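Is this the right way to post structure tokens for a design question? Let me know if I should format differently. Anyway, here goes:
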């Protein structure tokens, strides 16, 4: 029984470390660019759009800021919809069985 207890302790420790890593992903930011840097998108480690920069020469100075905000909102809206569809598909796969708190599919 001690091996089982040790294994459970290790699993709990790993779960705690995984949660810490997931929490820290919000602080990571990565920027991708296109058009020689004329368009940039910054995402955090959880794939949430944080910023979009569009060179004003592409759309005009006044329109760039509003367009950037709209693109961020559209990216995050699409991402939310993907998450919802993925959860529905996983629910179909698991036959509606609820997973333990903090456990999500795909792993």
């Amino acid at each position: 029984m001690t091996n089982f207890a040790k294994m459970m302790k290790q699993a709990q420790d790993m779960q705690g470390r995984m949660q810490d890593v997931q929490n820290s992903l919000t602080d990571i930011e990565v920027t991708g660019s296109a058009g020689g840097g004329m368009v940039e998108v910054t995402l955090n480690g959880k794939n949430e759009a944080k910023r979009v920069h569009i060179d004003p020469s592409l759309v005009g100075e006044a329109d760039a800021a509003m367009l950037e905000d709209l693109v961020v909102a559209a990216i995050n809206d699409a991402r939310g919809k993907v998450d919802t569809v993925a959860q529905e598909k996983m629910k179909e796969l698991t036959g509606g069985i609820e997973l333990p708190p903090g456990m999500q599919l795909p792993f």
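Format looks fine. Someone answered above. Worth noting: The beta strands are 29-34, 39-44, 49-54. DSSP finds three helices and three strands in the chain.
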